[in-house]
Amino acid sequence: MTRFRLQAITILVTLLPALGLGFRFATEGPGANPVDDLTHVTGEWGLRFLLLSLAVTPARRFLGWHWAQPLRRTLGLAAFCYAAAHLATWSVFDLGLDLRAITEDVLERPYVTAGMAAFVILSALAVTSTRGWIRRLGSRWVSLHRMVYAAGALAVLHHFWLVKADYRPAIVHGVLLAGLLAARLVWRARSRAASDALRRS
Predict the structure, then answer these.
(1) Taking a C-beta distance cutoff of 8 angstroms, is the pair 144, 124 a contact?
(2) 115-151: string of b/e by CB count within 10 Å (b at 16+)?
(3) C-alpha to C-alpha distance for 182 and 176, rounded to whole angstroms
(4) Among 30, 132, 33, 122, which residue's Cα sits nearest to residue 84?
(5) HSE toward the beta carbon, residue 98, CA cutoff 13 A
(6) Where are the domains of the chain?
(7) pLDDT tens digits for range 97-119
């Protein structure tokens, strides 16, 4: 499969949750709580695509899936877009773009604080994801984009604090993020051991 086709399929997959929600609204009506539906779908899929983007590098390193590497940026941008829609739903439909109410929510509600912090990080990563920014930042680009793990942790925390009854999805997301972090640590340990072995040889 060519790189173009793979990217096209990935983009289509990232659009499916939004298209599914739009189709449901069009055929069944908005339902009793359309804002809640928008909030949950955009928030949960934003987190899922973020985790998928983080899974690309372990898949390449441990499974040899080098073909997946170009998809990391696509999945990361999809995560940002869903996070932006999640934020817009909350700020426009819940709070009517009242800046005072938005500020109070961010400062007084821990789950909103965590979610907003995650979005700020994702925004910085989305802006600097272009080749131009990679050239401008040089080695600092890698350090900046490692912040994606902090964004993931804050997003999981936001999800966990937000739910009121069924914690299972939030726990699953937390376990997946922990596994991805563990995979990164294992790879770093292996790389360090290999470097030490080369120096001793």
Answers:
(1) yes
(2) bbbbbebbeebbebbeeeeeeeeeeebeeebeebbeb
(3) 10
(4) 122
(5) 8
(6) 3-189
(7) 999 999 999 999 999 999 999 99
